């Protein structure tokens, strides 16, 4: 069982709390050494003594990480796009701010600046780019007068573009092909520059295809869902890098503990397998677990002859392992899918 040890450079650690991510691993989340002043009152209180995480974009990854932090006694807040989602999180003890990427409410920055940690998980918008960086001078001004110590932007391995199936690392130059990937790369540069200006620990995590409980090949098969156009395109690729949400959380925690400036990490597992192979294995797991045959989908056997090499690459995770010390809970889609199916109730 691997437990991350805290880096001596981090001044806000104190009495590490063990937090269960799964039956296979525990990760230390930490309390601050001493009270920091509440920027609104100038005096410390019970809340300002804690690490405080603000998550811009409480989606699948942000929500998963938020719950773990909350269990570890962090103060957690963030943004969502709908009242229904806001109410769901309120029931879990986490208050969120409504946020529209199309027309951001800049008064939100008055709340963000009181947090010690900021995780950015909002995708760029077509023709706009990163919604927060549209007014980067205001963001810089507000955050520079706050308590921020750590900043992380969640990006995508799509920024590498096509390498013809070769292995790529953080040292390979990005060559994005799609407009979304180009906007991702621009956002990376914007947040890294902002972090440098603010003088805080700043990282970019380039995530592979994200999966986990409720969002996996197994769930797609059981729900008989139709795949999106982008999913159908990925179905016939030779290589698709992916990562379990619990391993993303491991990388996030490690990046908090290891202070760095302008670091970029690929967050993927060890097995960039084709989507067809992953769905076939998911089908076998479902039929073995519940002794039921389910309808196979045409995309499981889609011909690769019609697939272009656009976006073909195998993404290396060695920098993540060497620098952050992450030991993957799920090094392959096989172990990840097995853990998901073992915890599921009978869907039939």
How would you sum up this structure, described in words?
This protein is an alpha/beta fold and 348 residues long. Helix content is 33%, strand content 17%. It contains eleven helices and 13 strands. The strands form four sheets. Strands 5-4-3-6-7-9-12 form a seven-stranded parallel sheet, sandwiched between helices. The protein has a two-stranded antiparallel ribbon with strand order 1-2. Strands 8-13 form a two-stranded parallel sheet. Helix 1 crosses helix 8 and helix 9 runs parallel beside helix 11 (333-342). The radius of gyration is 20 Å and the shape is globular. GO terms for molecular function: isomerase activity.
How big is the Rg? Answer: 20 Å
Q: Supply the helix-strand structural class.
A: alpha/beta
Q: What portion of residues belong to β-strands?
A: 15-25%
Largest sheet: 7 strands, parallel
Distance between the termini: 35 Å
Helix content: 25-40%
Sum up the structure in keywords.
single chain, alpha/beta, 13 strands, about 350 residues, 7-stranded parallel beta sheet, 11 helices, disordered N terminus, two-stranded antiparallel ribbon, about 35% helix
Quick summary:
With 348 residues, this protein is of the alpha/beta class.
């Amino acid at each position: 069982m691997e437990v991350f040890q805290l880096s001596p450079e981090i001044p806000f650690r104190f009495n590490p709390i063990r937090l269960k991510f799964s039956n296979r691993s525990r990760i230390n989340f930490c309390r601050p050494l001493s009270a920091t002043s509440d920027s609104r009152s100038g005096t410390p209180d019970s809340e300002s003594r804690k690490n405080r995480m603000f998550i811009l974009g409480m989606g699948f990854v942000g929500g998963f990480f938020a719950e773990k932090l909350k269990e570890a006694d962090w103060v957690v807040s963030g943004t969502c796009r709908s009242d229904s989602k806001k109410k769901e999180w309120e029931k879990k003890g986490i208050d969120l701010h409504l946020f529209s990427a199309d027309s951001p409410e800049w008064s939100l920055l008055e709340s963000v600046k009181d947090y010690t940690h900021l995780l950015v998980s909002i995708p760029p918008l077509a023709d706009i780019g990163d919604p927060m960086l549209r007014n980067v001078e205001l963001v810089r001004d507000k955050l520079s007068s706050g308590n921020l110590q750590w900043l992380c932007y969640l990006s995508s391995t799509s920024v590498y573009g096509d390498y013809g199936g070769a292995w790529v690392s953080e040292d390979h130059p990005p060559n994005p092909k799609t407009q979304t990937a180009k906007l991702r790369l621009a956002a990376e540069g914007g947040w890294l520059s902002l972090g440098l200006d603010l003088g805080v620990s700043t990282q970019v995590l380039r995530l592979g295809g994200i999966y986990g409980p409720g969002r996996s090949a197994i769930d797609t098969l059981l729900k008989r869902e139709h795949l999106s156009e982008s999913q159908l395109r990925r179905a016939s690729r030779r290589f698709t890098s992916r990562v379990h949400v619990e391993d993303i959380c491991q990388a996030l925690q490690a990046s908090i503990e290891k202070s760095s400036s302008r670091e970029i990490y690929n967050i993927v597992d060890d097995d960039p397998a084709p989507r067809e192979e992953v769905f076939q294995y998911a089908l076998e797991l479902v039929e073995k677990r519940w002794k039921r045959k389910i309808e196979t989908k045409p995309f499981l056997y889609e011909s690769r002859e019609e697939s272009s090499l656009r976006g073909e690459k195998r993404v290396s995770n060695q920098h993540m392992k060497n620098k952050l010390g992450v030991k993957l809970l799920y090094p392959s889609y096989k172990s990840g899918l097995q853990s998901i199916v073992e915890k599921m109730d009978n869907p039939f």
